[in-house]
Design goal:
The longest helix has 23 residues. The protein is mainly alpha-helical. Helix 1 runs antiparallel to helix 3, helix 3 runs antiparallel to helix 4 and helix 4 runs antiparallel to helix 5. It is built from five helices and no strands.
Length: 117
């Protein structure tokens, strides 16, 4: 079971890398007002959602403790991220505040995962 959990943790990290990488590669475009949500950002957020749900299930099945409040906060942030990216995925440019919110919430999600024990 540990190998399966570690496999999904790796996939979860790949998802967050795609989402955050899509944000960071467009830092210059944010200033110019031409930043847009890329397909990699959408797929990264979806990967995070699916692997996160699987990880919670695998950890509960393996009798590992799961902090449901922490998972709920991370899920709420991810749903907001996913909604913003999904709704504006076809727009040629996205508002700076909306694009910044996705980057902020993604970063917050990472720090919640690492620091909240």
């Amino acid at each position: 079971m540990d190998v399966l959990i570690h496999l999904f943790v790796g996939l979860h990290i790949i998802g967050i890398a795609a989402l955050l990488g899509g944000f960071l590669t467009q830092m210059k475009q944010i200033g110019a007002g031409t930043a847009r949500f890329t397909p990699a950002m959408l797929h990264g957020a979806l990967t995070m959602l699916v692997t996160g749900v699987v990880l919670v299930g695998l950890n509960q099945a393996d009798d590992n403790p799961v902090n449901n409040i922490k998972i709920g906060v991370k899920l709420a942030l991810l749903i907001v991220i996913l909604a913003l990216v999904y709704v504006k995925r076809d727009d040629e440019k996205v508002d700076k505040a909306m694009f910044g919110t996705v980057g902020l919430f993604t970063t917050a999600n990472i720090f919640i995962a690492v620091l909240w024990t």
